[in-house]
Amino acid sequence: MKIVLSRDVFPLAKAFTISRGSRTEAVVVRVEIQGGGFCGQGECVPYKRYGETVESVMAQIEGLPSTFGRAELQKLLSPGAARNAVDCALWDLEAKKAGKPAWQLAGLDAPGPQETAFTLSLDTPENMLLDAQRNAARPLLKIKLGTDDDIARIEAVRKGAPDSRIIVDANEGWTPESYERMAPVLVRLGVDMVEQPLPAGEDDALLGLDRVLPVCADESCHDRTSLPGLKGKYDMVNIKLDKTGGLTEALALRESALREGYKIMVGCMVGSSLAMAPAMLVAQGADVVDLDGPLLLASDRRHGLRYERGNVFPPERDLWG
Questions:
Q1: What pLDDT, in 10s, does the model give residues 62-104?
Q2: Does residue 240 have an active-site annotation?
Q3: Mean pLDDT of 159-182
Q4: How far is CA 217 from CA 116, 161, 163, 226, 227, in A?
Q5: Which of 69, 95, 116, 264 could tie 286 with a disulfide, CB 3.0–4.6 Å?
Q6: pLDDT 10s digits, 175-221
Q7: Which of 45, 38, 54 has the alpha carbon at shortest distance from 94?
Q8: Chain-wide mean pLDDT for the chain?
Q9: Position 298 pLDDT exceeds 90
Q10: What gap in Å lies between CA 216 and CA 234, rounded to an integer?
């Protein structure tokens, strides 16, 4: 088994801003695993918030033994970007060797198109109004907030997109006081839910707050070991393969979260269609799907996912799975 790594850079269509900062490009790690005359591939997005860099992720992957399977991989690497890319490449390789699609190997039904959110990044209220107007035909908008001046921003977005469903992501940027101030406004404007309003290490405050709209755990939920710490704080969990460490754990997390009564959101980092493709298997039947990464890029990979009328379609065989 041979592993080939590459550092790929995708310029963004426009600067992407959240409460922690801005970026103008997506830097990803692509993993290619060759074996038995076949080749599988996967992609991950190293994330500074979780202490990851392209160099650290590549070093983890380069330190793997020469032969292993998906089951062994779960013990060799911790949840995170490095394991995600390798795990997804192994799924792709297994599918090609077996001559069967990955969904069939996973014991799932054939995937279909899913309605996906489209993200509007943090900006001035005036610019967010214009951005909302440009995207008002989209059925679901995800709005990046997380500052002290968010009321004007979300009111501008609702004015610009009066008919779209809206979800909000504060990216850990609020305090309990700002959440209490924002929540009634979000309800008044018809927002469906808010994602990670408080910092992951300070979210016990949610236990004492009146959750007047659903609250989704993102930075607070990585894999199944996160679930016990979410009780009484969150109504939904955001499953991202770069957090779970791949499709294998993502599917297991979805099953466990559903069993414990959580609603499911399936999200992504800003990456190419290769990173989104495996997540399409987890996204089937999810309450919220946010797999818009390729829509934020200036250009995608070849054989990229198809996006049409607010929906994202399953990958072609030439891409993954």
A1: 999 999 999 999 999 999 999 999 999 999 999 999 999 999 9
A2: yes
A3: 96
A4: 18, 25, 26, 10, 10
A5: 264
A6: 999 999 999 999 999 999 999 999 999 999 999 898 899 999 999 99
A7: 38
A8: 97
A9: yes
A10: 6
Catalytic residue among 96, 142, 240, 243: 240
**Residue reference for tokens 């490009």:** 25
Structure tokens at 264: 């499911």
The whole-angstrom separation of Cα 43 and Cα 202 is 31
Whole-angstrom distance, CA of residue 189 vs CA of residue 84: 37
Catalytically annotated residue among 96, 144, 233, 243: 144
Separation between Cα atoms, residue 151 and residue 4, nearest integer Å: 47
Instruction: Please indicate whether residue 75 is annotated as part of the active site.
Output: no
Query: What 8-state DSSP symbol labels residue 305?
Result: P
Burial of residue 172 (number of CB atoms within 10 Å: 0-12, 13-18, 19+)? buried
The whole-number average pLDDT for the span 118-145 is 97
